TrEMBL record:
Electron transport among keywords: no
Keywords of the record: ATP-binding, Nucleotide-binding, Transport
GO MF annotations in UniProt: ATP binding
Name used for this protein in its record: ATP-binding cassette domain-containing protein
Organism name: Pelagerythrobacter marinus
Tagged with keyword Cell membrane: no
Domain of life: Bacteria
Domain ABC transporter: 4-234
Biological classification of the source: Bacteria, Pseudomonadati, Pseudomonadota, Alphaproteobacteria, Sphingomonadales
One protein family per Pfam: ABC_tran
Record-stated family: Belongs to the ABC transporter superfamily.
């Protein structure tokens, strides 16, 4: 299975330059999930690869084959849309076999391919039904079946699960993962759902205004976000972000003050070098990285009053403090704290991220040699 390469792509809509010198490489057999806020260019990216839009500049290759000037049907890509785009008058089997009939394949070969796809997707008993007689999840499976029978070099998925309810989404998500494990087809999958991206991706590409904000494994984006934008995009509840000022920073460490009742935190030094005293930074810490128990060498936050506590069966989300000093704490187990009670939270120093005034992450400095 060849990979896909987009090189120096430019794409303009009227006065808006959406992509400008955009590069993306998708490895052979890789499952890349493209995420980003509404309007960042996710769908356009897929449409450019599928041939539903033409780039103003740049090239698109699948393996060594240049495809950006080929008509959509000759690119060796299969795209699955959020809307499924099934033919209502055709049965499941006819819908799945449609691309092969259009390609003039022999009837017996079509029947074999359709039977195999139906078997793989658990649609064999439904092969004679029409789309109106199917559930949303079953319809989406038919759309996937229609993509599979073409044996494309590249799958493109545009928010394929958005029309399904939460339970079905989770199930279909696992089906996507299993299907990818079986077929190994190079895949670009677009979603605006960060949880879906983290669950499915070999690699996540986070888009922002037509550019790549950050790409990497789900773990890298979650634990080592390159920017406050990336930090905020992943995680539910969202990462805590506290505006702070540098009190003092040197090679030994940095001391910062937040807006919460004179709170001062001492953090390890940052690789980017010391910021001058008074610099505005943003501290960020995941709700699950906070703990209500003290421990050696930890960052201690000043007490905050419990504003609310929500129980989700197994975990509790506790809102502490108000305004700029507010923190959300994700507590596993333990009794419900009373509203108004003061809670002191701790975090490991490496779990407290620091973002420079421009929103870029300030990586922790490597530990000094001893
Ligand atoms: N055919 C078009 N004509 C004009 N502008 C367009 C066209 N297609 C897309 N755009 C603009 O390009 C930008 C990116 O659109 P795109 O649909 O790729 O975003 P998206 O990230 O998929 O958003 P969403 O998550 O809302 O689907 C938007 O500002 C959109 O208005």
């Amino acid at each position: 299975m060849p990979g896909a390469t987009l090189t120096r792509i430019g794409k303009r809509f009227g006065a808006v330059q959406l992509f400008d010198g955009f590069d993306l490489s998708v490895g052979d057999g890789e499952f890349v999930v493209v995420v980003g806020p509404s309007g960042c260019g996710k769908s356009t990216l897929l449409r450019l690869v599928a041939g539903l839009e033409s780039p103003d500049e740049g090239t698109i290759h699948i393996g060594a084959r240049r495809i950006d000037r080929l008509p959509p049907g000759e690119r060796g890509v299969a795209m699955v849309f959020q809307s499924y785009a099934l033919y209502p008058q055709m049965t499941v089997a006819q819908n799945i076999g449609f691309p092969l009939r259009m390609a003039g394949r022999p009837r017996a070969a079509i029947e074999r391919a359709v039977a195999r796809a139906c078997d793989m997707l658990g649609l064999s008993d439904l092969a004679g039904r029409r789309p109106a007689q199917l559930s949303g999840g079953q319809r989406q499976r038919v759309a996937i079946g229609r993509a599979i029978v073409r044996e494309p070099d590249l799958f493109l998925f545009d928010e394929p699960l958005s029309n399904l309810d939460a339970g079905l989404r989770a199930r279909m998500r696992r089906e996507f993962a299993e299907l990818h494990a079986r077929l190994g087809t190079t895949t670009i999958y677009v979603t605006h759902d960060q949880a879906e991206a983290m669950a499915l991706a070999d690699r996540i590409v986070l888009l922002r205004d037509g550019g790549i904000e950050q790409h990497g494994t789900p773990e890298e984006l979650y634990h080592r976000p390159a920017s406050l934008f990336a930090a905020r995009f992943f995680g539910q509840p969202a990462i805590n972000a506290l505006p702070a000022r540098v009190v003092q920073a040197d090679a030994e460490g940095m001391e910062v003050a937040t807006g919460h009742e004179g709170e001062r935190l001492v953090l390890p030094p940052r690789a980017a070098g010391p910021l001058p005293a008074g610099s505005r930074v943003t501290l960020a810490v995941r709700p699950e990285a906070l703990a209500a128990a003290p421990g050696g060498g930890r960052v201690r936050f000043a007490p905050r009053a419990v504003a609310y506590a929500e129980w989700f069966g197994g975990e509790r989300h506790v809102g502490l403090g108000t305004g700029d000093g507010a923190l959300t704490w994700r507590a596993m187990g333990g009794p419900a704290p009373e509203t108004g009670a003061a809670v002191t939270l701790w975090a490991e120093a490496h779990d407290v991220l620091v973002f420079a005034p421009d929103g870029q992450a300030m990586a922790s400095a490597p530990l000094p040699r001893v």
